[in-house]
Amino acid sequence: MQTGEDIRILNEKIQQAASFIDTIKNTLSKVIVGQQEMIDRLVIALLSNGHILLEGVPGLAKTLTIKSMAQAIQAKFSRIQFTPDLLPADVTGTMIYNQQRNEFVVRKGPIFANFILADEINRAPAKVQSALLEAMQEKQVTIGDHTFALQEPFLVLATQNPLEQEGTYPLPEAQVDRFMMKVIVGYPDKNEELLIMRSQVQELQPPVINPVVSIDEVNLGKYLTRQVYIDEKIEKYIVDIVFATRYPDQYNLFKLKNSISYGASPRASINLALAAKANAFMHKRGFVVPDDIKTVCKDVMRHRIGLTYEAEAENINTESILGEILRTVNVP
To answer: SS3 for 94?
Structure first.
């Protein structure tokens, strides 16, 4: 149990340590126009050791954002374009024969980086998706008889295109559940689009991003994020939100009972707490408030709820279900 003095000391530490987040955001603003929500979610995932599934139409700076963040943090970036003919070895690596040494040696794949962009993950077969998701879950890769731990920080950002469904292999629910958040990336507004157009038309070369944050600063941020205080009432609030997706009638949400085929898994509770802590850290606070939960709730939960045929027929989506749950569940 943390005392008020403990939280005050933690607050001071966090206010000093969290300065690198402003540095990252200011650096990214040189090349990224808008998309603050996507950048915030990337920072939350970075602090929480989570991974993100991004859904949005092409051209919304998804690749540019994560590549720029990797450059700003002095980390290794790797982009994997998922295609139907991709093999697991193309992601993780394989054993190749070395004639000079007369033996098989390991050639590591693109998964061995700090920031991985898995572009259009739903274009590759399940076997390839599983290879990536295993590395995400275990934080290690096995090639032949050798097992290699993946270097921290390790952040996977997978994208899927909501428009083209031909030739795609939808991610199974059990695999989607391994992503900490599913973020819907929207279009920029008119002013942002105008700035994007001007910058692309006027500049021959994009601004160069130099490393401004060290891995040690990020690792300290990750450590302090885990120390952020979360009150027992807030913990119960998280559990109530998750249980409301499983047993809506217990929370007087009778009209949702026929809309939800299955509720969120225990990973939802864990990730909701972690994301809320990271959001508090990002705002230089050593304690979680209910608004932290509300801010990250939809991103953490939207891919963990199954809809019934009745819900789809009535155009009910997970956004509206989560909105109803947040309005109904008692806030501490």
So the answer is: strand
CB 306 within 8 A of CB 176: no
The alpha carbons of the chain give a radius of gyration, in whole angstroms, of 21
223 located within any domain = no
Residue-wise pLDDT for 147-184, tens only, equals 888 888 888 888 887 655 556 667 777 778 888 999 88
pTM, entire model:
0.87
Which of 242, 244, 203, 281 is closest to 14 using CA atoms? 281
Q: What is the domain-level CATH number for residue 252? A: 1.10.8.80
Residue 244 and residue 191 share a domain: no
Q: How far from 242 is each of 163, 216, 326, CA to CA, in Å?
A: 30, 34, 10
Residues 156 and 233 in one domain: no
CB 162 within 8 A of CB 170: no
Q: Which domain holds residue 317?
A: 229-328
Alpha helical stretches, state H, 164-289: 173-176, 190-202, 215-227, 232-246, 266-282
Is residue 218 situated within a structural domain? Answer: no
Q: 157 forms bridges with which residues in the sheet?
A: 52, 117
Same-domain pairing of 128 and 238: no
